[in-house]
Amino acid sequence: MLVRVGDAKDVVNDGMRVFDVAGTNVSIASTLGHLYAFDDTCTHRGCSLAKGKLDGTTVTCPCHGSEFDITSGAVLRGPAQQPVRSRLVKVEGEDLLVES
């Protein structure tokens, strides 16, 4: 199910923003002309990925340097071993919708 979390303009190009989706922090990133949504909590030590660095479709955790592919949630580099959940994100008119 998709839920409205804000306006499409709430996420700037080449940036990330965290939204509460049914009690879970979810990052939405805008890069290379696309939006991607993924759980904001690093699976290594629980740090916020939105406070990390976004480089193309890779986000680097600010705490220990784990890297994740924001298109799928896959771990690209540890110490994290578990992927983060990737979520469907969609824009309808001005509404920003994310899979709950």
Describe this structure in words.
This protein has strands spanning 2-7, 15-21, 24-31, 34-39, 53-55, 58-60, 67-69, 75-77, 86-87, 89-92, 95-99. The strands form 3 sheets. It has a 4-stranded antiparallel sheet with strand order 2-3-4-9, with no helix packed on it. The radius of gyration is 12 Å and the shape is globular. The protein has no helices and 11 strands. With 100 residues, the protein is an all-beta fold. It has a single domain (2-99), classed as Rieske [2Fe-2S] iron-sulphur domain (Rieske Iron-sulfur Protein, 3-layer Sandwich).
Keywords:
mainly beta, 50% strand, 11 strands, four-stranded antiparallel beta sheet, 100 residues, Rieske Iron-sulfur Protein
What is the secondary structure topology, with strand pairs?
Elements: E1 2-7, E2 15-21, E3 24-31, E4 34-39, E5 53-55, E6 58-60, E7 67-69, E8 75-77, E9 86-87, E10 89-92, E11 95-99
Antiparallel strand pairs: 1-11, 2-3, 3-4, 4-9, 5-6, 6-7, 7-8, 10-11
Task: Provide a concise account of the structure shown.
The chain is built from no helices and eleven strands.
